[in-house]
Structures are given as structure tokens and as C-alpha cells.
Specification:
The complex is a heterotrimer of chains A (285), B (256) and C (253). By secondary structure, chain A is an alpha/beta fold. Chain A contains seven helices and ten strands. Chain A has two domains: 1-95 and 173-191 and 205-279, P-loop containing nucleotide triphosphate hydrolases (Rossmann fold, 3-Layer(aba) Sandwich); 102-170, no CATH class. In chain A, strands 6-7-8-3-9-10 form a six-stranded mixed β-sheet, with helices on both faces. A four-stranded antiparallel β-sheet of chain A has the order 2-1-4-5, covered by helices on one side. In chain A, a hairpin with a 2-residue loop joins strand 4 and strand 5 (87-88). Chain B has 256 residues and is an all-alpha fold. Chain B folds into two domains: 6-42; 52-255, MetI-like fold (Orthogonal Bundle). Helix content of chain B is 83%, strand content 0%. In chain B, helix 2 (45-58) crosses helix 10 (224-255) and helix 3 packs parallel to helix 6 (127-151). Chain C is mainly alpha-helical. Chain C has two domains: 1-39, no CATH class; 40-245, MetI-like (MetI-like fold), CATH 1.10.3720.10. The two termini of chain C are 28 Å apart. The chains are: A alpha/beta (285), B mainly alpha (256), C mainly alpha (253).
């Protein structure tokens, strides 16, 4: 239980190539409930290289979202540390930009003002702000929607606004927690394409948390599979699919092989989680 | 209904409503003229209609309206300021909120207008008593809705703010407050409604001030037609106020 | 703050707040800063409360007011429910007449009191009429809204099982509308109390409202505080009881 970081089968824990931008080292997070102490995240370590997309995948309840909050600085780890470009993170930091799973655009601000939010708080001059907002809205394909309110947009468009808002602040690492979870399948694929395209364009170092195997394979350079409770690194899979990728890749044979490989890793963990959930249901007498 | 042309289907309800109202008035007029209803209890609708001109010209309706509006404005100011501040304060101090929220809800259910004889003793028979009654009766809903509005702020929005390293006061003013604002406004509007109802009511009861007093005076003079006209006038004014505030709320919610 | 036992903390805080208020009150009463007896000492209020408790007059007036509120709730409530069912059941009628009820609802009903006196006399009749008039509006509006918000699927289920109209009413409509109906009853009670009591303060020779005005004219401040405390406590109690009965959230407004 101690120290065992990852890579039981010897796959790469270190970033494949390039210099690591994000180092996550031995993160441990426990929760104290009435009856017991639950270890949600247990000695998780990995790195993400410059321009790389790393996905973390695991069954519900494996501590993915806890890890997201710890890396983003919204929650404090009990052990371990997060380092970006050699700088130790303590609390929320501009170096890490977070995109949340839930609806997170501000309904009282226009699309443009949403994207400008962090810049405004940081005290950037209006002219500069407007320029940046326009640039990032164009990047996510929402040119001309500055004056709209989020309520007038579709769910997928709103999530793009949230991504633009985070990117506009210029984070070193883009940290996303199931950003497509609330969307339908087709929108999800198309938005995945869009994110990949932006990621390539900006060479944006990205850490994506997801429970969709297809999404992880479609988007990532490497996929980190987590165990169910306590959440540990089970293994890291290199995805050697050609780039640039589009959603069409999900039809390819290699794609299917990767999905099958990851599913065989994940299956046992997921069924553990399901049994656990069933056991905790209140029983009828 | 579904088979009717669209335009007709749209006007039909309104026409039926107005027609129904007109029919009731005509029926009343007829019954009184036939002597089936005592005209010293219910005046002729036509007489009431004619009396409108009289109360507007002879009874200083404008200045009475302004008196009531002034009292309502003062109470509105006090209600929104105090209610929102207290609501925000309760939200910030969770233990205090848990201790007091049900008390405030209890006060909202209590007939607070009944405090008016007490206020008469404390403040005297003047506008201050009326304003204070309006204030006290409008306060609980404003507080409750403010607390509800803040409690309803989605956690993820606050997380967004924290991920951008906002300070606590920035979190409050840039995220929590604007997010709660629509619900807060609902509460303030609710409070103002209670304030206005009770202000006019107390004016009537203590025979002081604006429009409420007008009804009382005409009743005491036993000027039936004018009294009915005055009641209609007060109803029209309050209906106008409620429609306006509803429109304002919708507009605010849409642009929020 | 959240550590330890929060329920205990809340209880202690409530005691502390109450204690502080009472202490401040007593200090104000003894300071003589305010006009004599505007803020009477706690002992005097307690004495007046005890006095009320043993006063047969109080119980007579309480019964009178309670009866007026009860009758007005029965009359205004049943007319309100009937009107609500009619308006909620028919789109045409709803669209034609509901706006009138909606906008007349939040108007000061007490100004109809002179009319009610003329129609029903200065006795309990006019008070009951005031209460009934007040509670008609919220009950009618909530019933109509409740009728419309019934999940259409439930009605289709009932039809698919070929339920007869009476069965539809008792097995589908009524159970599906129990919360709005109870909520209507709760709000209706609140405004009926106000209607009846205010009418009693304006012109009457019995009832709790009359007693309040009596203590006002005799400048019996402790008596007035005691009366108001009892009236508020009763109103809050009944409101909370209806909420609890229906499993409604009492903080919901």
C-alpha cells in the first residue's frame, strides 16, 4: 500500500517525450466519514509532457474527481505534491486552467464577458481583453456570439465557452473533468474533434478526466487507467494512433483494439464499483 | 378549440373575460333598477363609473396617490436594503442561518400587520407608523428569498471562481451575488407586494395618509358610489403596480 | 464550526440569541429611555400573559375569532377550490378569467370592509366575509396551477385503465393535487387570519382583534404585547401544523 506508484507491467509513467510540464507526485487523499476513513486517491503519480494529452480513466467512485480537485488546487492533498514547470502548486494557480463537468458558464454574463471573466479579474485592460476574447472565441468556433447569453446557446456551445474562458487565461496545463459528460453522443464526438484541433494548434498540455473509453482513446497520447477504491494507477497505455485525428478514427481497427485493451483493464474495476453501489443501496425488508 | 383559426383562438379568452365582466356589471345594473337589489347597499355601476370623475377632481387623488407612493417607496427602500443585507449575513454564517431561518419563516407566516396598534403607540398616528408596518411585513420574504438565492448558487460556479484564484470578496460580488440576484429580486418583489398591501390597509384602518384613507373617509360620509369608485381606483393602482413589477422582473430575468 | 455536534451548536446559539434579545429588552425597559411602558419589563409582560391565560373573556374572544376564521376558510376555501378546478380544467376559462384573479389577488382586501359591513352587518358576518374574500384568491390560484401541473401521463394511465370520472377524481386528480391543495389551505389560512383580525380591529365588539384595540385604547401595553404574542404563536403553530401534515417544507414560502 505504500509507495507503489504505478506501471505494474512496466509501461511508461514518465512522459513519453519532451520535458514534463506537470508532475503529480504521490498524491494521497483520504475522507473521514462517521464510521471510517476512506482513501479516495492512493499514491498516484504521473507526469504530462509539453503538448501531450493524458487521459485519466476509471470507474465511477475511483476518485477521479477528487484527483481533479486536488490537481486544480480546489482540494488539499493529504500527501504528495503537484508541480508545474518546476514550481510547487499550493491552491488554485493560473498555471492550471480547469474546465468543469457541470454547466459552468455564468448565465448573467454574455458569452464575450464570460470569456473575459478571468482577464477582467486579473485587471487586464479592456482593449487587450476584447482582442483576446475575440481570438479565443474564434478558436472554439463561436465567432459572432459575443453578445449572446449562455441560455441562448446549446449545451455543446456553452461548454466551448467554458473552454475558451479557461484557455484565454493562458494556462500551462488544461485540466478537464469529463467536459463532455452532459452532452449527447454526437455532440460529444464533434466537440472532441474541436478540442483536439485546438489542442494541436496551441500545443496545449492537457489532462483529461473521463469515464468514456472511446473518448480517452480518441483524444489522448496516453491513457492512465485507475483502480476502483482506493484509486491507484493501474497502468498507463500509450495510444499510438496517427495524428491529426478526427472522429472518423473510431471506425478504425486499431482504435477498436485500444478500446478492447483498456476495457479488459477496466472491466474488473467497474464491476467492483457496481457491486459496491448495489451493496450500499437501502434494502427493502 | 384546436380547430379554430389561431387569431380567433387568441382573442377569444380575452373577449370572454371582458364580456363576462361586462355581463356581471350589466346584470347588477338591471337588478338594482328592477329593485331586486337595494340601491342603498349596492350603488348602480353606472353611478360608480360617473363618480370616478368626482373622486379624481374633488378628492385630491393625485396627492393621495403620491402620499401612498412615498410611503411605499420608503418601505421598499428599507425592505430591499435590510432584507438583502440580513439575508446575505445569514448565508455567510451557516450556524446562524440554521438557528434563525425557521424563525424568519415563522415570522413570514405571522399576521405582522396586527402590530399596527403597537406602532401607533410607539411612532404615533403618522406616516412613520405606516412605513414601519410596510417595512416589517415585507422584510421576512425578502430575507428568506435572499438566503435561498445564495444557497442556490451552483457550486461549480464558485469553483470556477476559485480556480481563477478569486478573493473571497471577488467571489461574493462577481459570482455569488449575481447568481443569486434573480431569486433575490423575486423576494424583494414579494416583500414590496406585502408592504404595499399593508400600507394601504393601515391607511384605511388608522384613517391617515393616502388612498386607503380615501376609502375610509368616503365610507364614513356614506357616499356609496364614490366609495365604490375609490375602491376600484385603489384596485386599479395596485393592479397596475403588480403588472409593472412583474414585467420588470421578467425583463430582469431575461437580461440576467 | 461544523465540527462537534452541530445540532447542539444551533440549540445553544438559539438560546444565546433569545437570551440576548430578552436582556436587551429588559435593559431598555429599565433604562427609562423610551416613553413609559412602550417597552414594558418582561415581568409585566409575563404577568399579562398569565392574566390572559386565566381570563374567561380571552377564551370567549379566541373562540369567536377561531370560529370566524374557520367558517371563512370553509366558505372562501371551497369556493376557491371550485373556481380553481374550473379554471385549471378548462383552458378557455383559465385564460379568460384567471388574469383577473391573479391581479386582484395581491390587492389590499381590507378596503372592501365598508362594503362587507353594508352587505353583512357589523357582526361576525362581515368578518367572515373578509376572511373568505381574502382566502379565496390564493386558494383558487394554487388549485388552478396544481390542476395544470398534474403529469399528463398519470391522466393517460387512468384513462387507459378505463377509470370512471369519480375514480379519476379520487384516485388520480386528488392524490396528484394534495400538495397544492394543502399549500393553498396554508396560505389561505394565513390571509384569512389577517382579514378577520384586521376587520375586528376596525369595527367590532368581540374577537382577538377587538381585544387588541381595547388594550390600545386603555394604553395597556403589557396586555397588548401578551395578546400579540399569543396571536402570532397560534398563527405560526397552525401554519407549521398544516405544513407538517402535508410534509411540506415549512421554510418554503
Amino acid at each position: 500500500m505504500t509507495g507503489g506508484s504505478a506501471g505494474e507491467d512496466g509501461s511508461t509513467v514518465e512522459a513519453a517525450g519532451g520535458t514534463p510540464v506537470l508532475r503529480v507526485e504521490n498524491i494521497v487523499k483520504r475522507f473521514v466519514t462517521d464510521s471510517a476513513t476512506v482513501t479516495a486517491v492512493d499514491h498516484v503519480s504521473f507526469t504530462v509532457a509539453q503538448g501531450e494529452v493524458l487521459s485519466i480513466i476509471g470507474p465511477s467512485g475511483c476518485g477521479k474527481s477528487t484527483l481533479f480537485n486536488v490537481i486544480g488546487g480546489l482540494a488539499e492533498a493529504d500527501e504528495g505534491r503537484v508541480v508545474v514547470e518546476g514550481r510547487l502548486m499550493s491552491g488554485p494557480d493560473p498555471a492550471i486552467g480547469m474546465v468543469f463537468q457541470e454547466e459552468s458558464t455564468f448565465p448573467w454574463r454574455t458569452v464575450g464577458d464570460n470569456v473575459a471573466f478571468a482577464l477582467e479579474v486579473a485587471g487586464m485592460a479592456r482593449a487587450e481583453r476584447t482582442k483576446r476574447v475575440r481570438h479565443y472565441l474564434e478558436l472554439v468556433g463561436l465567432k459572432g456570439f459575443e453578445q449572446h447569453h449562455p441560455a441562448q446557446l446549446s449545451g455543446g456551445m456553452r461548454q466551448r465557452v467554458a473552454i475558451a474562458r479557461t484557455l484565454a487565461f493562458g494556462p500551462k496545463v488544461l485540466l478537464m473533468d469529463e467536459p463532455f459528460a452532459a452532452l449527447d453522443e454526437q455532440t460529444r464526438l464533434l466537440l472532441g474533434d474541436k478540442v483536439l484541433q485546438i489542442q494541436q494548434e496551441l500545443a496545449q498540455t492537457t489532462l483529461l478526466i473521463t469515464h468514456s473509453i472511446a473518448e480517452a482513446v480518441q483524444l489522448s497520447d496516453r491513457v492512465l487507467v485507475m483502480t476502483y477504491r482506493p484509486g491507484r494507477v493501474k497502468r498507463i497505455v500509450d495510444i499510438k494512433l496517427p495524428r491529426p485525428r478526427t472522429a472518423e478514427i473510431i471506425g478504425s481497427k486499431d482504435f477498436g483494439l485500444y478500446v478492447a485493451e483498456i476495457w479488459s483493464d477496466l472491466r474488473g474495476e467497474a464491476s467492483l464499483g457496481m457491486k459496491d453501489a448495489e451493496a450500499h443501496l437501502p434494502q427493502a425488508e | 378549440m384546436a380547430n379554430r383559426p389561431l387569431a380567433e383562438a387568441k382573442c377569444l379568452p380575452a373577449a370572454l373575460g371582458l364580456g363576462g365582466l361586462a355581463a356581471v356589471l350589466a346584470l347588477t345594473e338591471m337588478l338594482i333598477r328592477l329593485g331586486w337589489v337595494n340601491r342603498f347597499i349596492v350603488p348602480l355601476p353606472s353611478e360608480v363609473f360617473v363618480s370616478f370623475e368626482r373622486i379624481i377632481l374633488e378628492e385630491n387623488v393625485l396627492s393621495r396617490f403620491l402620499a401612498t407612493a412615498g410611503e411605499a417607496l420608503a418601505a421598499a427602500f428599507l425592505v430591499s436594503l435590510t432584507g438583502v443585507a440580513l439575508g446575505a449575513f445569514l448565508h455567510r454564517h451557516r450556524l446562524l442561518r440554521r438557528a434563525c431561518e425557521s424563525w424568519v419563516a415563522g415570522l413570514a407566516a405571522a399576521p405582522l400587520v396586527l402590530l399596527y396598534p403597537l406602532f401607533l403607540v410607539i411612532f404615533g398616528r403618522n406616516a412613520l407608523t405606516i412605513v414601519m408596518i410596510g417595512f416589517v411585513s415585507g422584510l421576512p420574504p425578502a430575507i428568506l428569498k435572499t438566503v435561498e438565492g445564495f444557497a442556490g448558487t451552483p457550486k461549480v460556479l464558485l469553483d470556477v471562481g476559485r480556480s481563477f484564484s478569486l478573493s473571497p470578496s471577488q467571489l461574493f460580488w462577481k459570482i455569488a451575488f449575481p447568481s443569486a440576484l434573480p431569486v433575490i429580486f423575486v423576494g424583494v418583489r414579494l416583500g414590496l407586494m406585502f408592504s404595499l398591501i399593508n400600507i394601504v390597509g393601515v391607511e384605511f384602518l388608522i384613517n391617515f395618509g393616502g388612498l386607503g384613507q380615501l376609502v375610509n373617509e368616503l365610507a364614513e360620509r356614506y357616499d356609496l358610489a364614490a366609495m365604490y369608485a375609490a375602491i376600484c381606483f385603489v384596485i386599479l393602482v395596485s393592479v397596475f403596480f403588480f403588472i409593472a413589477s412583474e414585467k420588470l422582473e421578467r425583463w430582469l430575468l431575461r437580461s440576467a | 464550526m461544523t465540527s462537534g455536534c452541530p445540532a447542539l451548536g444551533v440549540g445553544l446559539l438559539r438560546l444565546a440569541i433569545l437570551g440576548t434579545i430578552l436582556l436587551l429588552w429588559e435593559a431598555l425597559a429599565r433604562s427609562g429611555l423610551l416613553f413609559r411602558d412602550v417597552v414594558p419589563s418582561l415581568a409585566k409582560i409575563a404577568l399579562a400573559l398569565g392574566h390572559l391565560g386565566t381570563d374567561p373573556d380571552f377564551y370567549r374572544n379566541l373562540r369567536g375569532t377561531a370560529a370566524e376564521v374557520g367558517v371563512s376558510l370553509a366558505i372562501g376555501g371551497s369556493i376557491g377550490v371550485a373556481a380553481g378546478l374550473l379554471l385549471g380544467g378548462s383552458r378557455l376559462l383559465g385564460k379568460a378569467f384567471e388574469p383577473y384573479i391573479h391581479y386582484l389577488g395581491p390587492t389590499p382586501k381590507i378596503i372592501f370592509f365598508p362594503v362587507m359591513i353594508m352587505w353583512f352587518g357589523i357582526g361576525p358576518g362581515s368578518k367572515i366575509a373578509m376572511g373568505a374574500l381574502s382566502c379565496f384568491f390564493p386558494v383558487a390560484l394554487i388549485t388552478a396551477a396544481g390542476m395544470r401541473q398534474i403529469d399528463e401521463v398519470l391522466i393517460r394511465v387512468g384513462r387507459s385503465f378505463r377509470a370512471r370520472p369519480w375514480q379519476m377524481a379520487t384516485k388520480i386528480y386528488f392524490p396528484a393535487m394534495r400538495y397544492p391543495l394543502l399549500n393553498g389551505l396554508r396560505l389561505g389560512f394565513g390571509v384569512a387570519v389577517i382579514g378577520v383580525l384586521l376587520a375586528e380591529t376596525k369595527m367590532s365588539n368581540q374577537g382577538l382583534g377587538f381585544m387588541v384595540m381595547q388594550s390600545y385604547s386603555q394604553f395597556d401595553m403589557p396586555g397588548m404585547y401578551a395578546l400579540l404574542l399569543v396571536v402570532f404563536a397560534l398563527a405560526i403553530l397552525v401554519n407549521a401544523t398544516i405544513s407538517r401534515l402535508g410534509g411540506l417544507d415549512s421554510t418554503q414560502h
